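hey so i finally got around to running both of the ones u sent me last week. sorry it took forever, my laptop kept dying halfway thru and i had to restart like 3 times lol. anyway pasting them below in the order u listed, first the sequence line then the C-alpha cell line for each. didnt double check formatting much so if smth looks off just lmk and ill redo it

first one:
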Amino acid sequence: MEKFTKLTGVAAPLPMINVDTDMIIPKQFLKVISRDGLGRGLFDEMRFKQDGSEIPEFVLNQPAYRDAKILVTGANFGCGSSREHAPWAILDFGITCVIAPSFADIFYNNCFKNGILPIVLPQADVDKLMDDAERGANAIVSVDLDAQEITGPDGGKIKFEIDPFRKHCLLNGLDDIGLTLEKKASIDSFEAKQSASQPWLYNAAV
C-alpha cells in the first residue's frame, strides 16, 4: 500500500448526501477480483450515458476535475452494501482523499485499508471546502496527514481528527498484511521453535 503523507491537488465537489456504494461502483463491475481498471466504473451511472458517452455535466467529466485527487462530498458517503470495490474504484481513478461530514462505517474502514484518507469535518468546514472546490482548476487543496491539517486555495487552514493507529498505518503504508509482516521476525522465531517441538504440524508424513 502506498504511503500517505502529504497530498496537493484539485478538489472536486460532489454536493450529494447518502451516496451509496452502488452509486460509487455499480454491481456489474463486481465480477472482477482485480483492482486495476475499476476507475473506469467509478460513478458509472452518473458519468456515462447508456451508449457509453460521457455526461458532460458530471463533475469528474469536466476538464478541470478529470485529474482530481480529492473529493469533497455530503453526509453518509459510502452507505449501502459493504463492497470493497468502492474504495478500489476511487483509488484507481486517482482520488486518495475524501472529505465529508460523515461516512458509512464499513466504507470508512475500507478506505484506510486501501490507502485512502477519509476525513470527517463539521458541516461548516465541508461547506467552505465545497465552495473552494467550485473554483475548478484553481481548487487546489493540500492535505498534510502528519500535521492533520487541510490548506485551502486561499491559504486558510482546517484541522482534522484521526485515530492515531490509522494515522500510523497510512503514514507508513501499512495494510493488514503489512502490519502482520512488521512482526515477521517474531513469527519466524515462533514457527522455528514450534516446528522443532511439534514437527507433525509442519510435515504431514511425520
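and the second one:
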Amino acid sequence: MRLTPGPARDIDLDRIDLFDLDLYTSGDPHPIWDAMREKAPLHHQVLADGREFWSVTRYEDVCRVLGDHREFTSERGTVVTHLGVDDVAAGTLMTSTDPPRHTEVRRPLGTKLTARAVKSWEDKVRGTIVRFLEPALHGATFDLAERALLLPALVTGPLLGIPEKDWEELVQLTAMVTAPSDPHFTQGSEAATLAISHHELLAYVKEWVKTQRADEHQDDSLLHHLMSVRPGGAPLSDEEIALDGYSILLGANVTTPHTVSGTVQALIERPEQFEKAQADPSLIPNLVEEGLRWTSAACNFMRYSVDDVQIAGGTVPARGAVVAWIGSANRDEVQFPDPHRFDITRSGAKRQVAFGYGAHFCIGAPLARMTLRIFFEELTQRFGSVDLAGEPQHLRSYFIAGMTHLPIVAQKRRMP
C-alpha cells in the first residue's frame, strides 16, 4: 500500500471495505484512516458473508484495545485472517493467550531478548548486514524488498537455533501465513495456502523438538529455551513448544523486511533526509523509530471484546471482533503532528506502536531495533546515493503492509 498518501478526497465511510485486498496492494488506505479517526473512530463493517467487526483507528483507542486483556481478549484469535473462526490454538499459542499464562511463557524467553542480552550479538549482526549490502555496492540493480525477506533469518537463525539450510524454506512458509493471497506465496486458494503453511511450520518445529530431546549436546538457542519454560509449574508439551516456536518464527520473519524496504523507499523519495542521516549518524536511532512509525509493517491486530465495551464514542457488543489499526494509530495527528511527513528528526517518534502495545508488545523489539539501527548505519555510511530502478510492488495482504519488490541502484560513498 502507499505509505505516502495521495491527495485528500471525499470518502463515504458507509461504503468502504477494509477487507478489500486491492486497498493494500495498489490502493491508498491512509486517507480512509484519516477520515475514520475524524468522523468514525469506532467503525462497524459487515462482510458479504455475514462476518462483522469493529475498527478503532485513534492512537489512544488502539492502545486501549491492545493493552487491556480484561476488556479485549486475545484468546479467540489476533489476526484478521481468523475473523469469524476461533483460533484453534487460542489459550496455548503465545500470541493468542492472555495473562497470566502469556506472561509465564513470555517472561523467561524475554530474558534472552533484552537490549542488554542482544548487545552481545551486535558484531555478528553487523557482519551479516555488511555481507547483505555488499552486492548493492557495485551499481547493479538490487531488489531490496525481495532480498530483505531473508534478512531476519540471516540475523536470527543462529539465535533461534535454526540451521542455515532451512532458512529460505521457513521464510517462504511464514510469508504464506501472513500474505496467503499474494501471488508470490499463494499455493492454490487462500485457505489452502494457510493450511499448508500452518502444517509445515508446526511439523518443522515438532521435528526440531524431537531432535533436541534426543541430542545430548543441546544448544542454548531461543527455541531450545522453550523446553525449560514451566507456566504454572508444569513443562510445556511438545505440541505447546511447537505452537510457541511457530509464533516466534512468525514474529522473527514477517515485519523487519518491510520496515527496511519502506524506510529505504522513504529516504529515496526524500534525499534530504538521507543526507541528514549521512551527515549525523547520531540521528540513526530516531530514523529507525520514524521508519517503524512510517511503515507500520504489522498494520493491524485483532481482539475480541469480553463484555459490552464503551469505546471511541460507541459500543462494541460482547464477543465482538475489534481490529486495532496500527497503521492509523501511527499517523494520528494528536500524537504525531503533520503525521504524513517523514522526518528523521521528529520529536516523539519513539511513541510509535509498530511493535504493538501492552502484554503482547513484540518480544523481539530490542533485537529488531538493533538490527534496523545497524542496517541504516551501514547503509548511510557505505552508500553515497540510493535510487529507484523500477516500480515498487506491494504485498497483497491486509495484515502486513510491505513490498515484494523494490529495485534500487546504489552508488558507493566516496569518503573524504
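quick thing i noticed on the 2nd:
The radius of gyration is 21 Å.
anyway thats it, ttyl
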